[in-house]
Amino acid sequence: MKNIFTIFSKEIKDILRDKRTLTVMLLIPLVVYPAIFIGITKYMTAQNEKAVAETLRIGIISNGNQSDFETFVSTMPNTKISAISDTTAAKEAILSDSIDVAYFFPEGFDSAVAKLQGTGFQYFYTSTNNEFEVAIVENINTVYKQALVKKKLAQIEVSETVLEPAKSISRNLASAREQLGSVIGGILPYFFIIFCMIGCMYPAIDLAAGEKERGSLETLLVSSASRIEIYTGKLMTVALSGFLSAMASIVGLIISGQIIGSDTASGDEMGQIAKVLADILEPGSIIMMLVILLPLNIFFAAITLMLSIYARTFKEAQSMITPLMILIVFPTIIGMLPGVTLDYTTALIPILNVSLGAKEIISGTIETGPLLLTYAALFVYAAIALIISVRFFNNEKNILRG
């Protein structure tokens, strides 16, 4: 045991001297991750505020049938109306960004509406317009058509309920945490899993293939420590690095929630998101996520260390381990898809079960049975990876390859 901790402390010191490993393991999940999350949140908030304050430039083609619509739209806030001669001029004005949308009401539009005859109007815009402007235009069209219907029903003295004899009233029983968790619950586990893998990858490459290049691995092999003690000390170091990286991503998320919550009002939409985010990251949820990441972390550590031991050089180890990221990302993305949930089948699929388990832990909808099966499956896979990795390390041809 003494030899194991001696090797473990030696490897930890080597990692602490490696600025690249420390950057990937701690700086990115602890600083860059929150910075990206906060930046996106602030950008979305600024865009929403900009959309509310922005003036919609409306062009109306004058042909004697636009007066009703012009009166209607003039009462709407943040709108600027201008007259356009014809459709050609309207298209040119939109393409030159002089106006945002142009409306054309064909000849006989007013009389057709008055006689309850079928008719319609056209509006011109570009799909590359600001999405908020497009949404405002669609809302204007809907409200105007509703206003026409309401006016004609009043003229013929018919109640509006004739169009909707029964109203449907929705009662969403899902909590705010469940609703937000279903949206971000698939994204957050992606970062946890990726950082867990990255945190294992770089130390594993350096502690095996890197030592081969430096010639220090032979020194360990001829020391008083047994082969299994050397392997255990290195595995503990790699596993600790991956676990710290995953924890750093969780801490970064907590920091993000605190900053967002302090910068927004409690009644604001982003303030509500921050509040729900704080509920998601309660101690119980964090503990469950750490427990689900622990065996996955051991699995990653064993696999990456095994490949690094086999590699001749640092560069070869990178080329062998990097493709594993694709195998990890694919099931993680599947876990983001709607309709894919944690059950007794998906709980047996590695990586996917972590993604789905963390997703349901975040949303607060986790079921005990599938969660326990996920824990069991992950520990079994970690044990299998450890057995294979130890045998691989004990093979002289692998450890002295190159």
Protein architecture, described:
The protein folds into two domains: 2-42 and 177-399, no CATH class; 55-160, 3-Layer(aba) Sandwich (abc type-2 transporter like fold). The protein has 17 helices and four strands. It is mainly alpha-helical and 402 residues long. The longest helix has 37 residues, at 227-263. It has a four-stranded mixed β-sheet, with helices on both faces. Helix content is 69%, strand content 5%. Strand 1 (56-61), helix 3 (67-74) and strand 2 (79-84) form a beta-alpha-beta unit.
Produce a short descriptive summary.
The protein has helices at residues 2-17, 19-53, 67-74, 87-95, 109-114, 131-155, 176-184, 188-214, 217-221, 227-263, 269-280, 283-310, 314-321, 324-334, 352-363, 368-394, 396-399; strands at 56-61, 79-84, 101-104, 122-124.
